[in-house]
Amino acid sequence: MRAHLSTSLTTVRNLGILAHVDAGKTTVTERMLFLAGATYKRGEVHDGTTVTDFDSQERDRGITIFAAAVSCDWAGHRINLIDTPGHVDFSDEVERSLRVLDGAIAVFDGVAGVEPQSESVWRLADRYGVPRIVFVNKLDRAGADLDSAVESIRRRLHPAPLVVQLPIGREDGFAGVVDLVRMRSLAWTGGACEEGEVPEELREEALRRRRLLEEAVAELHAEALEEFCAGPSISARTLGAALRDLTRTGAGVVVLCGSAYRDRGVEPLLDAVVAYLPSPLDVPAMRGQDGAERPADPAAPLAALAFKVNSTATGRLTYVRVYSGTMRKGDTVLDASAGRTERISRILRVQADRHTEVDRAVAGDIVAVVGPKAARPGTTLCAPGSPLVLEPPGAADPVVSVA
Ligand code: GDP
């Protein structure tokens, strides 16, 4: 079955998951895909059947070596997850993936907090101006503590962590969160995520933390400050809008918590991706090396950046981020880096463990294409009549390619 990739750009989120090895990136990704209905078989990391790690070398080694892009749909939004390796030896690949992201989730272990590797990936994301939200994972583990994880974030990564949840229960008894923006509780029991009133015994603590959140946001956001001063409190609507603005400008970083081991434990994370992280229209336009902007407009001349090349049974798959224009099946495009024209013979949307063939991909999309023979990570594919080489935002040096 053929389909168009016709999602409106405002409802697209291109994001990566950044983490220290073992923080739970694979498990969190897998749970997100599962909740968003994109997976058919449910995998666990330890038996080597998770969805994002579909390369056999990865399965053998049990670490995420090669980036893969996977799409899923949540609350009317298309979420394209670009897998970024966490292992420090593969930082070139981390860097290449960062160039095509509009936003990221940084996952931390609730026991270990910020670790050296997470710090170096965080700095790289700073360099590329990637807006982030934080997910403190594994709150079910013995010794996990949200407050000390947040303190290590404040000390080592960002001066303004904005904690939007209060955990319900500790360690083994971790059973949900209070959403401090809406002041509702979300409890995951069995397979359900039940929303309800804030439990009586947590009400005082939740109000205290909500106040701290309001103070932190008011300090950074003019409109929120106005409401804060007028009192008695900032509305959920203004608070949500302020958190979105602060995330997108990098002035603050929203912190959520949970456990990928709880069935619906990453549902609020998916909601936060939609609410706070930017769409392709909310980030600065990509520029060519000539300095001219390439708007995220399907009607503009084509400009796409390759960030990953894989040899698979389907053929040579080149993963591209389309920045400008529309790429159609059968089109002849210019590989501006190699100076040769190529035919796009197939366009594939990668959903978990299957590929769906589509007729076209428009600005903002991330797809895999078959046809280009010389494209490498960092190659620009463009309309032959409008040649250009893309200059990724923040890129100070040339892309390092692998053969
Ligand atoms: P990655 O290296 O960051 O991709 O981490 P993985 O997803 O492979 O997780 C590392 C280990 O932590 C695996 O054994 C997971 O089963 C385990 N893990 C992941 N999430 C959680 C969690 O929320 N709670 C607990 N207790 N363990 C987790």
TrEMBL record:
Localization per record: Cytoplasm
All residue ranges annotated as the Tr-type G domain in the record: 10-281
Domain of life: Bacteria
Keyword Cytoplasm found: yes
Keyword terms, alphabetized: Cytoplasm, Elongation factor, GTP-binding, Nucleotide-binding, Protein biosynthesis
Protein transport recorded as keyword: no
GO molecular function, one term: translation elongation factor activity
GO CC, alphabetical: cytoplasm
Main location class: cytoplasm
GO aspect biological process, one term: ribosome disassembly
Binding site for GTP: 19-26, 83-87, 137-140
Family: Belongs to the TRAFAC class translation factor GTPase superfamily. Classic translation factor GTPase family. EF-G/EF-2 subfamily.
Function: Catalyzes the GTP-dependent ribosomal translocation step during translation elongation. During this step, the ribosome changes from the pre-translocational (PRE) to the post-translocational (POST) state as the newly formed A-site-bound peptidyl-tRNA and P-site-bound deacylated tRNA move to the P and E sites, respectively. Catalyzes the coordinated movement of the two tRNA molecules, the mRNA and conformational changes in the ribosome.
Protein name: Elongation factor G
Gene name, Swiss-Prot/TrEMBL: fusA
Section covered of the full-length record: 1 to 403 of 671
